[in-house]
Amino acid sequence: MKFHFFHLMPYPELPADFREKNRSVWVDVPSSLFDPAVGHRAYNEYLDELEYAASVGFDGICVNEHHQNAYGMMPSPNLMAAALARRTSGVKLVLMGNSVALYNPPTRVAEEMAMLDVLSGGRLVAGFPVGTPMDTTYCYGQSPATLREKYREGVELILRAWSEPDVFPFNGKYTQLRYVNIWPRPMQKPRPPVWVPGGASVETWDLCLENDFLYANLSYFGYQEGQKIMDGFWHAVDRHKLPHNPYRAGFLQFIAVADSDAEAERLYAEPALYFYQRCLHVYAGYVNPPGYMSMATLQAGIEGQVARITNRAGARAEMATLSWKDLIERGYLVAGSPATVADRINDMADKLNVGHLMTLLHFGNMSKETTTYNTRMFAEKVIPRLRPRFHEWEDRWFPRDVPLQDAPAVSPEAVS
Amino acid sequence: MNSEIVSLPNGRRWQVYSGGEGPQTLWLHGLRGVDPADPTLAALQTRYRVTAPVAPGFNDLDELARIDNIHELALDYDDLIEVLGLERFSLIGHSFGAMIAAEIAAHFPKRAERLVLLAPFGMWNDAYPVADIFAMPYTQIDDILWHDPAKRDTFARRVATDADVKIVAEQTVTLARSLTAVTKFVWPIPDRGLRRRLPRIACPALVLFGAEDRVVSPRYADDFKAGLHGANTAVVAGAGHMLPYEQPEQVKHRFEEFVRAAKMA
Lengths: 416, 265
What we know:
The structure holds 2 protein chains of 2 kinds.
Chain A: E1 2-6, H1 18-21, H2 36-55, E2 60-63, H3 77-87, E3 92-95, H4 107-119, E4 124-127, H5 133-139, H6 147-163, E5 168-171, E6 176-180, E7 194-197, H7 202-211, E8 214-217, H8 222-239, E9 249-257, H9 261-279, H10 295-300, H11 302-319, H12 324-329, E10 333-336, H13 338-352, E11 356-360, H14 368-386
Parallel strand pairs in A: 1-2, 1-11, 2-3, 3-4, 4-7, 7-8, 8-9, 9-10, 9-11
Antiparallel strand pairs in A: 5-6
Chain B: E1 2-7, E2 13-19, E3 24-28, H1 39-45, E4 49-53, H2 70-84, E5 89-94, H3 96-107, E6 112-118, H4 141-145, H5 149-155, H6 165-186, H7 194-197, E7 205-210, H8 220-227, E8 232-236, H9 243-246, H10 248-264
Parallel strand pairs in B: 3-4, 3-5, 5-6, 6-7, 7-8
Antiparallel strand pairs in B: 1-2, 2-4
Helix pairs in contact in B: 1-10, 2-3
């Protein structure tokens, strides 16, 4: 099993009455709440935390893209990945990713990812999310009716731009280019591994399986809720007559480790509730623009879906009164002593069959000190218990370790 | 009304409703598609031959794959008008349908004899932005579309609660499909350059707004008047964006007045 340290980079000082006073943490969150001095401190501490995770043995460090979002301050994850490339070695840079349809032309994504792969010495994981409706349709103005088609065309263009040795013309519906010939080209051959973070859409699963991309489910609601979605994915794998290699799947999980279950509550309850109560306050009108979800997906699971949407609306109202106990019982958060956490992750590995675990060990307004502690505890006391899982499978969805003699030069002060 | 499937030379198929006897009227529906029970359609059929095609995408989103932009949409309607053999007709549209009607009249100024726009999309003014009906939960869209709660209850019955999940599902998918078709031509701002094309419109035009329209402000009447030389504009009391459902008699009355005035001129 492989372990990755995921950072959302939330704004850490949303006021306690944020929920009551504001409609949404995303899209139209008031700029008056942003203090650049707080942002400056947060960015630098967050990069320290990612670098620290690299130094204690995580396989990958993950950054992702959000726009106009107070819980995800990375409109450009590529900038963060570039900073991390210079300060780390060995650890893989999991860029979760660039929402392809937002870039014009999409060769910009091919270029920047190629730069990162070369700069880091072949350590890049290239993430291609369709992107959330908030990011793509409301913040970046893409029509939900054409978003997915534009995304698929962009992905095709990027893959060709990485792999075709000669200059070629691209006559697409959304992009027309006479001379595609990006410079530099990625270090990894034939290309960096591609990961697609996505929801429960049959179209996304098919895209992954047809192109040998990893599928990652980035849920904030834990592996119990995530099981239905991952079951759907493995069902799609069966449909494609492929083996259930756990390394073609990833899953995100909030994790909080301490010496005891009681200590976990003392340390982590506040940042966890900060996340679920303030950060997840997204206006319901931004969640499902017409056309974002294909009618097939809407129709297929419609009855379950309606129940789900209703439940979610209920859940949204309930968020305000959530307790630490609720978070644990619902499985949103895996928390407790190293033994408890390892048990739960073993259970997840059994049920979801995911080889790539993306851990959220920083969440909400967690301090750097607590984050460092959580990260160290997980790396030292949990990872060793889980490392052997799935060792019988080959992981073809992750950058290979570069042999020592070919290792890229790094500056002496780089961590790990 | 009768419903038939009409095929165009390009292979596209249209569902077209028709009914009534009299002078030709082409009706382009708004956000709710064609409902034969629509009171304005019923009122018009007492004196006119009404033809009402279902806009591309409203029945099947795949229909939109070959229509990339508002110009190709106007071309498709031009093909349909040709196949239907409509000549000397009045072109009436509501909401998104009024935007299409204006585009058809601007692209093909010799087609329609007169143009009637009811609460039209298609223009943008920073001083009074068109409401974003695509950034609200489906269950709340009717809150902003309607002014008259009684009319709303008649024509847009509230979706059932969890008790009848199948009905909720069906209504949600229908609404989602209709709105998806619309987003293709109005996202994120319902302005595809109609303002620049309005002066091409050669026929007499009437533009009506509901006084209580909270989606497209009645102030847009001025924007249309500025682009359409000699257009009549009026604001109808007691109606929101669903003007032809909320004040069908007023709409019919103003339409007939407009027809008479045009004949006298």
